[in-house]
Amino acid sequence: MQSIQAISVSRGISIAPVFQFRNTPLIYDRRRIENPLEEWERYQQAVRESLNRLEQIYHQAVSEVGTDEAGIFHAHISILQDPDLNDGVKDRIYSEKINAESALYEVSEEYCRMLEDINDEYIRARTTDLRDVRDGVLRILLHVDGQQVKLTAPAIVVARELTPSECLLLDRRLVKGFCTIEGGTTSHTAILSRSLGIPAVVGIPESLLDVPNGTTTILDGYEGKILLQPDAETIRQYEQRQSKRRQVFDSALRETHRPALTQDGHCVEVFANIANDNPQDLKEALQNGAEGVGLLRTEFIYLDCEILPDEEVQFHKYKTVLEAFGDKPVILRTLDIGGDKQLPYLDLPYELNPFLGVRGLRLCLRNLPLFKAQIRAALRAASYGNLYLMFPMVTKAAEIHAAKAVIAECRRELEAEGCRIPPRIPLGIMIEIPAAALMARHLAKEVDFFSIGTNDLTQYTLAVDRTNAVLTDLANGFDPAVLTLIQAVIEGAHAHGKKTGICGELGGDPLAIPLLVGMGMDELSMNAGEIPAAKQIIRQISLREAQAVSQQALELETPQEVIGLVKSAFPFIENYI
Ligand code: PEP
Ligand code: MG
After folding, report:
1. CB 3.0 to 4.6 Å from 140: which of 46, 48, 194, 238, for a disulfide?
2. Is 455 close to ligand 1, i.e. is its CB under 6 Å away?
3. In the chain, what are the domains?
């Protein structure tokens, strides 16, 4: 058995044979042609056919994953309609008298090289979309079937890279997982696999592309692990884990609408992390027992738009989420762009260390029209539900003062325009920078609540890039250094009578739950699928015991010791992992 560590981008466990995803190569010669007009018409016909296919894929995507995720195919349609691209192909056919395939390939590669020269991960990633669109047209020109890769049995799909359309065109009932070399947690393919509920990892080694088709594999999307040719005992253990998970989940789901009260009557709020306004996702979060939205990652709404979404577009999206949750709190996090999340249309300057650069609130405060459009949209939507506002990537109080001034200005403007806004909208900040965690007792005076972003807090505390597959072992939220900061944040908030939540991945981790509850976390926000189990875990512990264990954990030196302690103090949690 060989075990390979990668980065998890979509959780879950699958056991299935490997399927190497390789499209049939598109082979053609660079031919001289006699009649450029005929060749240009042949090209245009192929573009029209390709557009029809893309429209069909778009509608399929809307019904399967919702409008937001389907937006990528809209983007593909725009690429195909781009006059620069098509005029470039026409020029080349006429000036060089070459076949349409070669003209299209050469022109699109020139574009890709231009994009690749831009030192921006997001823009570079868009070359995948351009090549995806180009290959669709080439397949039509070459009369090669568009759906080259057909699964005939359940499989874990291994590929260098998967485009969103490749991902979506595979039979959903047969795809048991995705393993790719390329693609970060915010790539469109990662977003799609999460919303399709398919386990996925990225950052696999090249060698995995040589593994023969049919090799039995376990994909552990919880730990980002791939186990090749597992022995019978390992398969048995994972199968047991899968069926135990299913049973545990079903039983937890049955009682998920009851509050999460510890044995000694302490109530912990359990909220959902949401990335879009897709009604299906909102319904699922509520069905899973979400008592509110602890993190509305609004940047995904921007990431799915081809151009900057204006105030009106945003207003409708926020209104949809607020209405779905009624009087339950919805914590809307303002735009958290920067780091690994870039918006092509913002044209942000290159940064050597984008995670340490102009990100989150720093970016919004330097781009007031952008920030104000979002705040105005949120304030206008506020009367449709129970809105809370939260700022990401806050380092110090001055930033909170500046953000509050923007909110006050937007409120004044809107009220002057006759808009009715609830008089009090609670304001909070994410604590994801160690400096903010250390100064929490001061920052607590400035806001109504905190939410701890342990994904970033862990990367900044331990100096480990959260997207680096090589260092995943080091990036561990159970590290006592991270836990010590979490404790300081909770104490800082409580000293001023303010609440603290957590919305990083640690919040939904079964083993972390007793520690967080014991440290005094008021609210846990997590992926919707994790809510029923989290509530059931809370109901099985007592606050007193959780407090004792968390205090002990803070005295330990390594994350492994902390995990060992939790497992021995609360053996029943093994059923949830
Ligand atoms: C976090 O940093 O923990 C967090 C929830 O925000 P994001 O993962 O979107 O950066
Ligand atoms: Mg963060």
Report:
1. 46
2. yes
3. 2-22+149-237 (3.50.30.10), 36-141 (1.10.274.10), 260-576 (3.20.20.60)
